[in-house]
Amino acid sequence: MPKITREEVRVPADVMPEARDEYITNYLKATRETGRLMLFACDQKIEHLNKDFYGEGIDIADLDPEHLFKIGSEGVCGVLAGQRGLVAQYAADYPEINYLIKMNSKTNLVGTKQEDPYSPQLYDLDAVLAMKEAGVNIVGLGYTIYLGSEYEATMMAEAGELIAQAHANGLIVVLWIYPRGKAVTAEKDPDLIAGAAGVALCLGADFVKVNPPKPEDGRTPAEALKVASTAAGRCGLVCAGGSTVDAETFLTQLYDQIHVGGADGNATGRNIHQRSLDEAVRLTKAISAITLADWAVADALAVFAGEKDFTLADI
Amino acid sequence: MPKITREEVRVPADVMPEARDEYITNYLKATRETGRLMLFACDQKIEHLNKDFYGEGIDIADLDPEHLFKIGSEGVCGVLAGQRGLVAQYAADYPEINYLIKMNSKTNLVGTKQEDPYSPQLYDLDAVLAMKEAGVNIVGLGYTIYLGSEYEATMMAEAGELIAQAHANGLIVVLWIYPRGKAVTAEKDPDLIAGAAGVALCLGADFVKVNPPKPEDGRTPAEALKVASTAAGRCGLVCAGGSTVDAETFLTQLYDQIHVGGADGNATGRNIHQRSLDEAVRLTKAISAITLADWAVADALAVFAGEKDFTLADI
Amino acid sequence: MPKITREEVRVPADVMPEARDEYITNYLKATRETGRLMLFACDQKIEHLNKDFYGEGIDIADLDPEHLFKIGSEGVCGVLAGQRGLVAQYAADYPEINYLIKMNSKTNLVGTKQEDPYSPQLYDLDAVLAMKEAGVNIVGLGYTIYLGSEYEATMMAEAGELIAQAHANGLIVVLWIYPRGKAVTAEKDPDLIAGAAGVALCLGADFVKVNPPKPEDGRTPAEALKVASTAAGRCGLVCAGGSTVDAETFLTQLYDQIHVGGADGNATGRNIHQRSLDEAVRLTKAISAITLADWAVADALAVFAGEKDFTLADI
Amino acid sequence: MPKITREEVRVPADVMPEARDEYITNYLKATRETGRLMLFACDQKIEHLNKDFYGEGIDIADLDPEHLFKIGSEGVCGVLAGQRGLVAQYAADYPEINYLIKMNSKTNLVGTKQEDPYSPQLYDLDAVLAMKEAGVNIVGLGYTIYLGSEYEATMMAEAGELIAQAHANGLIVVLWIYPRGKAVTAEKDPDLIAGAAGVALCLGADFVKVNPPKPEDGRTPAEALKVASTAAGRCGLVCAGGSTVDAETFLTQLYDQIHVGGADGNATGRNIHQRSLDEAVRLTKAISAITLADWAVADALAVFAGEKDFTLADI
Amino acid sequence: MPKITREEVRVPADVMPEARDEYITNYLKATRETGRLMLFACDQKIEHLNKDFYGEGIDIADLDPEHLFKIGSEGVCGVLAGQRGLVAQYAADYPEINYLIKMNSKTNLVGTKQEDPYSPQLYDLDAVLAMKEAGVNIVGLGYTIYLGSEYEATMMAEAGELIAQAHANGLIVVLWIYPRGKAVTAEKDPDLIAGAAGVALCLGADFVKVNPPKPEDGRTPAEALKVASTAAGRCGLVCAGGSTVDAETFLTQLYDQIHVGGADGNATGRNIHQRSLDEAVRLTKAISAITLADWAVADALAVFAGEKDFTLADI
């Protein structure tokens, strides 16, 4: 898979001229110079509280938050996505990781039946830019929109303004868009997922993270995904990894998402960090082998099995 | 149809002296020096999600968002109206298009029965001005108000302030005004449409986009429209194109809106972009022939049929 | 009726020293050097939509918004009150009119039964000051408060801050105060009207526009009004003109409001602009003859009948 | 009663060094160099509309708002508390009065049954500081909190920030704290009143105005008040005067509030201004004789009866 | 227990370089150079009104707010946590205390059944920084989040931004996190407490104050706490002291929280200040002996009994 050069990076028109170099650098860092994104999602300590990190079937290592940073450091990822405070507490010891600051988050305590979801922006962009200025290797921002929520307006407006400011400062932006709320009856309806992808484009995001569509008309998920990735236009589309499944199933899905569905990468969290450090590191490498180097599923499985290695040099 | 000169452009008193030249330039660009507006509406990816771009009866080309820009570039339009992010991702490759940035948008997931409509402003004007400064050919702004919604107050206030700021910076403003909400029983009532036109004037808009009125008293829609266009005073009135109908019906309606109803142009989206590139381009030309050059319907139909050409030089 | 001099103008203590001259000038302009206010209300295109401007019993001339400015220009008024955008579109052609910018407005679509009334501030004062700076003859601001609405708090706070800023910049302020909302059972109760007048004073307004009280204890409306005008203290009180009635009734009421009720002028809209230009102009002169020159009703009626003229020179 | 010196004034730590002299001056002015506060409450024109100023049992003089300023000028008070606009309209003619600007107010139209009470801040502190800078003798601010209202949060936050800013600028602050709302079953419960006093301290107020507690356990109101005044710590506690009662009852209560209940003064409105000017002036003197000079009730009654005089020189 | 040096303090990456020294100083002050926190909670005058300070079983000394400062001054604590205004009124007389300003608070009048809890930020950080600049010994901030409340979003956002600003200025931050609201059925569920600890970390807090978990699966509270303290990662965890219990029970629990549960200190209020000054002082010393010097329970009890002394020199 050929690397892309600085000249080949397509820079949106809202990246100010003086931030153009910074944007290109961040885009190339985040995509490991491939244009594809391997996002290691580490924002669940707020989103799912401690349930994703402790309990049956979860390696005990996952209880200590530093586990996430060890994986990010020893594995092969594009970016590690986490809240500003989490990154602030560990970044000094893991300076080489590419950080993507998740700008909003909510817990899962108040359910959709009680209240439509709203995930608040937790800090100004200025606080993030200051951290970057002080030396933290921040390459971009993340923000979640619950499309169809009664609070959709607030989240769309926060995201819309955030992207404008981020681009003006040379940061890339990934939108998480999940249809959810009383008005949404089928969160993974293919039309809805494709619509979500289009919303991300119109707001100016560089990448959009969506749930894989569940078609009920005979199409495979990957075929339905192709519609969404086309609708996303110049906004790269990546799929959420979802809950932990076996590696072969997971890697095959990922391969199909990219090669059939037109996805531009992946965004995986629990499936990685709920494992022991060694196993988690190998999984990041297997994922990156597919996402960043177009390896076959069999080769990626060999990486996961420890039979082969995969490093940044293999991209 | 005689072109208007820079001196003939009527400049509102809230255009600051230092922005006067810029306003005149933008007004002449948007109206192709005619005072009439041919607006190609491309904001449906948020408003209607993917339903307007993919499915039965829609050309497959419409799934790729770049389709919109190809039409804007190869056809004849006054402005292409889209969200800031959408424009940011493609403008560098289509620099000659006149862009009108749609400042607010909402999806159609939460219906009026659940909640009265509110469409949030998605980014500050500063972000748009910065893009313009960085070289994007932005000539104006758009904003939607749902009159009669319980959130009317918020949208009227956002629009009122936006117009003041836009004019101060030399941009023109088009308001989309649709009566909608629990309090509105007949969205296309002629009195209500005329009222909407007056609201746009009082807020200081340059153009107002309304739905064509549906009179139930024997008047034709165009006759009823004449009341609204008069009530709009110095604010130009254009009608929304609505869903896709056959070209002859569509072009005849448009001709009547202008020549009987006193409309100052048109605003059309789906009816154009759901067609193949070639057909869509021909339709923009047919529309512009009527709107910008006072051609007869038969001549415009010949343009649509490809029997005649229509270019900017014909205005 | 003797004119008041610059020295006789009572300047509130929140007019900053550097704005003192400007305030005196604006106060004298607005009151035609009499201390009384003849306000021509032209904010109904938002408040009542098109119903006040088109239909049975309304002269067809009223459909074109320019009608308002022609009346303001050819008639005799203190100020023409309208929204910022409306004034911006016509002021260049009618530069001699004294403009009072109505800072908030709402439509009548959402009724009180559905939701208590809230009328949002539609633009910052800065936008108005910029227009003034650019040459528009703006002498003051207007703002409506619905007392007793569940949104009373927001409107009182917007008005309170607006008056402070307006005075600091030398503009006069007129408050429209109408008791309205689920909690208000009798909108024209004399005690309530008197209370409204007191609220205006406490917020620092220069004039308050109220509906004429409807006493049910045998007092005449004008007698009841006297209580309100006294309660208003140094805030001048003017009565809303209400819907169109015959000129004699109207002018007699006005005379009594001033000479019995202690009113400091009048605020009339529909009753003027729903007439033909000539009749409307004559009515403004008849009103001003009473308000600004203490003429008798019979003389004012002669003015309205075209038997006598009344000009600024008669004040 | 010995006067306190500038050195004896206890200055809170949030009074910035450069504002220290100003704070001491204002504290001494407001307390007439006694540390005790005689507050003449004149904010009822918004709070109670015109009912407190006109009607049976109220002297007709009270209808004219200037009555309040005449009393403030001819009587003996610590401060006259009123809204910014009210003070702005009269202060130039009554420059010697110590003004305390009431920063928030609401009408009584929307009752607690319909909606929990919220009283909005009506203007920024900047507007008040500008008036002071322009020469108005403003010594402090007032703000009302309805404790236990569903809007408690907003009022506490406005008050908390206001006190910080006021102290930073050398102004003193008086909080009116009334428990009220659906959650409050006994507004004058002694524990609740004591709690309110503690809240004022924690927000940093200089004085708190509470309603006198109504104990139901055999204690006298003054004994119960002692608990509240102790709980208030370094925040001085004053009691609201309530509705008009006969002077002997009123003055005896006041004496007990101070000498048994530990109150640091009083805050009286209706009981003063509903009387004729002469009687009202005498009542302010009688109150001040007790509050500011520790005179006996009998002596104060003699002052009220006109048999003795009390002036600032008697403090 | 060895003291930690300036070099050993782990400074989060959002502490700006120019504030690094200040942060280290504040961290060492607050933890008495141990890395452990003994927090004397004095924010209940708003949270619980006067009920915690007066009544049966409470020493009468506690009614006077100065009691809190006497304890803070004569006892051994890490920080005294109270609202800005409370600290402002007494800090000049107790300059040696380390103050932690509680930035938000609510009363307990509106119960969770009526409305989910929201505790508003009561003043800007600027006001606190100004006090610090003026000489008050402020080392950090506190903020309460009610996780699972319908207002969780607002509190999380206020806290997230506050921590960023506080760290940028060199202050430490303690979050109080209590799950509460209609959606929360078991406020002390161990999983929920562990989740709360993780939220604090992700927001970037230095310490989190939680209620001790109540496990129902046979584990001891301290064992369950170990999960939470691990989940907190680099954010120190301290337990709330709760209502007054006998000293032996209290101190034994504290010992176990630290030595079994992995707690990094304690946060105690009522249990201390509801006692006489002498007893309260001895209790702070007994607590600090365990928290800051790893003394055995028996030795700490001897300190409480007055048989041994414990001073800062013993750390």
Descriptive account of the structure:
Five copies of one chain form a homopentamer. The mean pLDDT of chain A is 96. The radius of gyration of chain A is 18 Å and the shape is globular. In chain A, 39% of the residues lie in helices and 14% in strands. Chain A has an eight-stranded parallel barrel, surrounded by seven helices. The first copy, chain A, is an alpha/beta fold. In chain A, helix 7 runs parallel beside helix 8 and helix 11 packs antiparallel against helix 12. The longest helix of chain A is centred in the middle third of the chain and has 17 residues. Chain A has one domain: TIM Barrel, CATH 3.20.20.70. Chains in contact: A-B, A-E, B-C, C-D, D-E.
| CA-based shape of chain A | globular
**What's the CATH H-level superfamily name of chain A?**
Aldolase class I
Low-confidence stretches of chain A: none
Distance between the termini of chain A: 7 Å
Proportion of strand residues of chain A:
5-15%
Kindly report the spatial arrangement of strands forming the biggest sheet of chain A.
1-2-3-4-5-6-7-8
The topology string of helices and strands of chain A comes to HEHHEHEHEHEHEHEHEHHH
Predict the CATH topology of chain A: TIM Barrel
> In total, how many beta strands of chain A?
8
Biggest interface reads: B-C, 49 and 44 residues
Family (chains A, B, C, D, E): Belongs to the DeoC/FbaB aldolase family. FbaB subfamily.
Protein name (chains A, B, C, D, E): fructose-bisphosphate aldolase
EC number (chains A, B, C, D, E): 4.1.2.13
Enzyme class (chains A, B, C, D, E): lyase
